Structures are given as structure tokens and as C-alpha cells.
Amino acid sequence: MNETNPAAGPDRYSPEHIRLPLRRAGIDTYRQPVLYLREGCLVCRAEGFAALTRVKVTCGGREIVAILNVVTGDWLGPCEAALSDAAWQALAPQPGALAGFAHADPPESAGVLRAKVFGERLDEPRFAAVLRDVMTARLSDIELAAFVTACAGDRMDLDESVALTRAMIEVGERLDWGPGPVLDKHCVGGLPGNRTTPIVVSIVAALGHRVPKTSSRAITSPAGTADVMATMTNVDLESDTLRVVVEREGGCLASGGRMRLSPADDILIQIERPLDFDSDGQMVASILSKKVAAGSTHVLIDIPVGITAKIRTPAAADAIARRLAFVGEAVGLRVGVRYSDGSQPVGRGIGPALEAHDVLAVLRGIPYAPADLRERALDIAGAVLELLPGVAQGAGRAQAAAVLASGAALHKFMAICNAQGGFREPGVARFVRPLLAASSGTIACINNRQLARVAKLAGAPRDAAAGLVCTLREGDRVQRGDPLLVVHAESPGELAYALEYAHAHPDILTIAGEY
Amino acid sequence: MNETNPAAGPDRYSPEHIRLPLRRAGIDTYRQPVLYLREGCLVCRAEGFAALTRVKVTCGGREIVAILNVVTGDWLGPCEAALSDAAWQALAPQPGALAGFAHADPPESAGVLRAKVFGERLDEPRFAAVLRDVMTARLSDIELAAFVTACAGDRMDLDESVALTRAMIEVGERLDWGPGPVLDKHCVGGLPGNRTTPIVVSIVAALGHRVPKTSSRAITSPAGTADVMATMTNVDLESDTLRVVVEREGGCLASGGRMRLSPADDILIQIERPLDFDSDGQMVASILSKKVAAGSTHVLIDIPVGITAKIRTPAAADAIARRLAFVGEAVGLRVGVRYSDGSQPVGRGIGPALEAHDVLAVLRGIPYAPADLRERALDIAGAVLELLPGVAQGAGRAQAAAVLASGAALHKFMAICNAQGGFREPGVARFVRPLLAASSGTIACINNRQLARVAKLAGAPRDAAAGLVCTLREGDRVQRGDPLLVVHAESPGELAYALEYAHAHPDILTIAGEY
């Protein structure tokens, strides 16, 4: 019984009918789509738009939601509109195509977000509503930050972790490898040089198991496994190619970038990273959703524990391990967890090519290969194998050691690289210089985070050969003038900059003892 | 005992020494300072900057922290840098001045933010650390959203509300009116047309009390008190002028925009608004910090309660009232709270000039003046007066009614306007058209939020004369063809757009009954 009169008449009119031609602004605003309109233009006045208004832009049957930046200079005219790179990519208009502009509707999941902030527990459909809006950029970065915060700390119980994991799987693609075990491993990050994955995958695949490994590029670290592998072979495989590689060799060492496995997680991570809240609930959903989407059935999670690692205490490791086991069982994954020493780096090199050299040395059985990297890789490969039914405790490690020693693992690694497009030796940097010890004594402590920062300042992972080499470990003795670490860089500027930072932070490698 | 060798040598070098000339980008990014650098420029490469990196920009002894947008088009050269309007204002460089660029240090309060997210209670110094970083734009919008979320719902106890209120007062300026009571009133918003403030201030000042009222412009509503007063007099007073007005007339009706009272709150509100979390803790800190900063001693808070008002239930109103009383006492304010009917609009007009006409009608004692606005203003003025020692219950309202009836309140209002720069009659809109009832029956329900939206679509508050007039109230009978409301606009387009929206939302005024 609710009815009112239409606003009929000759001047019936909607500002949505005002259309402006689109052009590229030539501005990279990362993943946030931005719309640029001239101050005081007809659209701004008709709609009451101001800077940061969320605007629905429609063009050629597609629509996006963009944040408005108001142009006060004259690089944009009053009768045109410009889009940031992210917005242009998402809307994909023809240059000069006419677009319509309107206030964006509040996202469907605004109520869900609000409920979580006010302490309600969310189920899978409500998490899925949030993630759908995440995927279509209907939630602003501010709203994503609110969601991440509302789920941080102890505000997500185990059932919610399961629901979030399932919702993350739901919104992405999913690989299916048919019946039988599909093995995988994952490290809860934070330890420079800890590049066991290529070795573990080669060992496990050499033993005839399926291990279709996709890895990420570095986000905040000096190298991700995909960066390291990219110094030796092609890692950017389309799903079809990846499937061929795995069918032929049992395993692959590819980048997960093109796979769209748990893509909502990729977006949330971009918000979680600057906030750095280390939420167990989200970390577990992030890890396990990607594993399920990748078609894995058995996953070994390596958790390095150490004061400058990501997980700092055994209690924190236990809490994550419990959550991993609970959620893993709920989503049908066999999850094994292994704690490892997270107090100092692993191997010698830190940076894509330098870590690749370490990996190759281990696979090739070269005498000077870093023993800590080899032992860790064998431990992890053994633990992966022991997830399988019928493999006894200890038997997995023995199998792993045998295929590494026999050269079968090296052979498998080369075969995988060849299947992915061919193997090449990783490069070396143009400029190399050591940082020398200013005093004599014993290495008391190594700061993983600062060591990673030196490698990044030297140019890693952008410059594949950049980074550093550090062979010292806690308890090693050094004499004044001994090299503490060696910086590798592709430009003298970056070399000096990294060394300057290292010099300004003497607790990267703390020397205790006589002068 | 920690020492390492300096990276001495001829190529010693720091990217902070690379300086680029600054120019204005001519882009309004609201309050977020944005730095624009060309993709692949020397600074980006040397520092490893990417889109959204937080960059410290230094120039002429000043520094700001800005978010980086990477320019991929050719409007910016590789050897120059551009700043958004907010960044340019904050850094205030000479055009072409050379600036340095470095990674911004993590904000001092990042740890505090993290602690709050993980459930710790914050004290005043820790809230103050956050607010200092808010003021200097060292916290990004993402971090502000995390802070707002971490304090939302029931996550801020009463002591924290006190600490946050004190910290907010601390970071801003504070007016001092000398000894004796300084009166004020505040409405917890959400009710269109509820423009009692000019009437209440005129009554209270006419009775010889001090009431230095500063009000805000509309944020999400069709009009704020400052918008309404701006249709009749000058409201943008510097503090010196404001002081002269108050000394002469006892009261003022100015905009708080230039006062820098609780300025951190002004920034937080910009984040809270799109999130719309209605956090009691932050709302109380926001209201009371501004009152203390304005030098008030006695404050009456009006809380309209209604299903489409900001506060929807009596229980929610009680919770806010308790918190207001507790925090008020802790910061030395005498706080009175009054609940009022929030189910439907007050007065007839919605929009700056239309509300001003209602205010003038009440002050002038015109017979057709809206009785509901007059009664509410008298109730509130009475309650303000009864906060004073020696004024009995009911006596305040009687005093208020007397000065309104005698014309003394009108006289005081005109005197205040004259002191602020002169009185003028509010304008009228060029285009006016009614929305007609499509059926006969009884008004069952009025939706405040949608009514406000119609007024905004008509152009309020940007166009001062725009908005709507609605004289109907719940229970009123209408015949098919009667006007339900009348839209006022300055352009035919906006007139039609507002009516079109109203037609599409028949539950703005729900008519129950026969056809």
C-alpha cells in the first residue's frame, strides 16, 4: 500500500545519463581503482561527488567501483574522465569510450563486516559474501583493514577458521589431479635463505610421488621460491602447461601467480602485510585454502621458531599447529607440522640467484654445499613422505637421503626444469664487497630481519643476482678484519647503500668477546 | 661490543642524496598526502619504492610522510616529483624546490595499535601517541581503519573512553573563558530538520549566560548548524573575532571548522564515517573532547531515539548516557542527558535555508511556526538552564518560554548575527515541485534516512536553498493527490533527480489504509 507519484515531466532527468569519455591517467595506484574527474565538472556537481567518494563507473556493459580523486590542475579537462592503471585494467574500455558515473551502492557484505566488528561469529556463507565483495573491489581498503582487524588476535575461533578457509577455496579456481595422494609442503616464512622447496620437490618426485608445487614471488622477503626458480628456468606456466609438466615428471616448481588459487587471499594479504597483525586465523585459512585449491591431499608445514623469525615462541607455534590440524581435518587435508630452528639463516646465500647456487650445490652433492640446508631439506622431505600411509617414522628420511645421494633428485630437478622450458645456471652479480668485522670475538646473535633488509637494499629480489652471502653461525669465532658477510649487487650505488645500512646496524651480527 | 666496519670508499653513496624538484600534481586526494614519481625513475630504483610505499619527503627543513603513486604516463618526467594538494599544503615547498626521498620509519604508535588489536587496554599516553601520529599523517588510512575497528563495539571500556577523551583534548587547542559557567548543548544527530541550536543559544544568551557555540558543517546530513547559520550570517570566525562576539553578546553561532578543537577527532571521523561502526567509546570521546576544548563547563546532550535515527533503541541510548556521564565527570564537565523522540523529522524544512526559515519563524513567534521545533527548543533550553546550580526542575523551561515569548531571544539572535558580520534573510530555491500521494490513507511511518537522502539529491547542503519541506507526521491523513513533500532545488535536473529517487522509494512516507 505504499505508493507515490512519479516525477513525470519534460525535464525528467538522471545524472547517470551524463557520460564522459575515458582515458588512462597513467597512474599506478596498485590494486585500488581510482577515478579522476576535474574539480567542479558537471558529473561532480550533479552527483555531489567529492574526493574519496566511491563511484560506480559503467562502460560497455561492465562496471567497476573506483575511489574518486578530484583533479585541480589542468592535465584533465572538465569534459573527460581518467582511470588509474588498476581501474583501466578492470573496466577494459576502448580509449575515448563514454562512461556513466553514479554513487556506488553499499557493498552487500557491509552488514557482515559490521557484525564481525561487533563480535558476532561468522559462518561460511557470510565469509563468502565478504570475499565476493573483496574479489570485485566493492570493499575499499579501509573496509578491508576493518575486516582484517576484526578477525585479528583471538577474534576468530576454530570453526570460523574452517568457514573462512572454505569460503576462500569457494571463490577461486581449484586444480584436480584425480585419485591418489598429492603431496605438498609449506614454510611459515621468516627465515632468510631457507630454500628447501626445490630440493624437497625433486626428492619426493624422484620417488614417484605427485608434488605439483606452486610458490609465490617474494612479498616482503629478499626472495620467494618462485624468484629463486626463475633464475634457473621458466616459472610462469599456464595451467595447461603445468598439468603437462606434472603428468610427465610428477612434480613442478612453478609460480602460483597465474593460477588464481584462493585469489581473495592474495588481496587480503596486501592489506595484512602493512598492518602486520600476524593473525593465526587468517594465516591458517590463507595457507590451507591455497593447498586445497592446488589439489593437495597431504601437506607438511614447516614452522621455524626463533626470536627474529615470524613465529617467535614455542607457545605461538603450538597455537598455530593446533589450528592447522583442526582446519586441515575439516577441509579434508592430511596436515603434518614440524618445528625447526628459526634463530638464524639457512644456507649461505640470501637473494634469488645466491639461494639457487646453494640449492644446486646440495642437489649436485658438491662437498662445500651448505650442510644445514641439506639436512633441513632431508628432514622436511622425510616428514612429507611419512605423511603417506605405510611409511614408518624415520623411513621417509632414509628414502630421501638415498635419492639425494644417488643423484636421482638432481636428475629429477633437471627434468622438471627441462619440462618447464629448459635449465640455465643462475647468474652472478657485477659488484661484490665484504663487510669486515671491526672486533674479534664470538657471534652471539644473528638478526634475520636486518639481514633480509641488507639483501633487499642490495637489490634483491628485483635484481636476481643481488643479495648477500653469510657463512657465519651463532658460536662461530671471528677475528677483526674477517668478512662478516659479502654483499652482491648490480650497481655500485646499491652495493654501498646496503653496506652503509649494515654498518649502521652492528647488531645484524652481534660479536661478543675481546676487542 | 657490537661493531662492524664502515663501508668506506670512493663510491660511498646514499640514495637520500638524490634530490628531485617538486611541483603540484593538481590532484585532490582529500587528506591523504600522495607523492607522484615516474615509473623506473632513479629514486624509485635506488630506494626500491613501489606504488603505495610510504615515503618520507624532506624539503627546506620540513618533512611529510606520503603514499607513493607511480606515474606510468608522460605527464610527469623521470627527473621531477609531484605532490597531491594535501601533500603540497603540508610540506609547503617553493615550486621547483629540491626534495629528498626515503622510506618512512614505521610510526611510533604502530606498537600501540598492535597492542589494542590484540586486546590490551590503552592508557592516556598510549592513546596520545596514536593521536600524535594521526595528526602528523604518519598513520595511513589503513592503520586508522584498524585503530577505529579495534576500538569499536564493546572493545573500549569506560576508563579507556576517559583516556582517549583526555588525549584528544591534549593534541588540540583549548579555549579559556575565565571563571564561571560556560553552557553548551549537543545533539547526537540523525534527525532531519532538528535545528534547535540557534534557538537554544539565543534563549540562553538572552538570559545572560555564556554559550560560545561552535558547530560543524554537514558531514553526511543535508545540513549542519553551521550550514544553516551561514544562510543568515557569517560563521567562519577567527578565534579573536569569536572571542569579541562572545564577550559582547554572551553567545555566538559560529563554525568550528577553523578552531582546531580536538583536531585528531576530525581526522578519525573521516575514517569512521564510511565504516559507520557507531562506536560508543569513540563517539563519547569525540563529543566531550570538543566540549572541553571549547571551554564548556555544563553540557546538555540531546539523544533522539528512533528506528531510523542514529540511536535506535532505549538500551543503546542508556549505554551512551552512562558513558557520557562517567567520562564527563572524569574530565570535569557537568553533563546532562535528555532523550527525545527520534521517530520522525522536526520542523518543516530540511536543508540549510529551509531550516533557517523554520528557526526564524519560531524566534519571531509567527503563528504558523512549527510547534514541534519550538517545543523541542524550549525543552532543551530548559534542560541546559537546569544544569546550573539553583535552577529547579521545570524552572529552566519557564525562563526559556518567557524570553522566547517576549522577543528577547529574537533580539539576542539578531545581535549575535550582527556581531558576526550582519544578518540577512535566507534565500529561496528557483525550482519547487511537490511529490503527490498516489493513494489515500494514514501516514504510518517516516524514514528519516531516506528523507535526508532526497534533500541531498536536491542539492543540500551545497546549494543552501535546496532541500525539501515536509509537514506531515505519523498519524496524519492524506488524500490521493495531496502533496507528501515539496522538493526545492536550484536546477531542474536535481529537482527531477530527487523526485525520481523519492518515487522509487515509496517507504519514505508509508501510507496505510484504503486506496
From TrEMBL, chains A, B:
Name of this protein: Putative thymidine phosphorylase
Family note: Belongs to the thymidine/pyrimidine-nucleoside phosphorylase family. Type 2 subfamily.
Membrane-spanning ranges: none
Root EC class: transferase
Domain Pyrimidine nucleoside phosphorylase C-terminal: from-to ranges: 442-509
Keywords linked to the UniProt accession: Glycosyltransferase, Transferase
EC number: 2.4.2.4
Keyword Glycosyltransferase: yes
GO biological process: pyrimidine nucleobase metabolic process; pyrimidine nucleoside metabolic process
Record's keyword annotation contains Protease: no
Catalysed reactions listed for this entry: thymidine + phosphate = 2-deoxy-alpha-D-ribose 1-phosphate + thymine
The organism of origin for this protein: Agrilutibacter solisilvae
Molecular functions (GO terms): 1,4-alpha-oligoglucan phosphorylase activity; thymidine phosphorylase activity
GO cellular component annotations of the record: cytosol
Lineage top rank: taxon: Bacteria
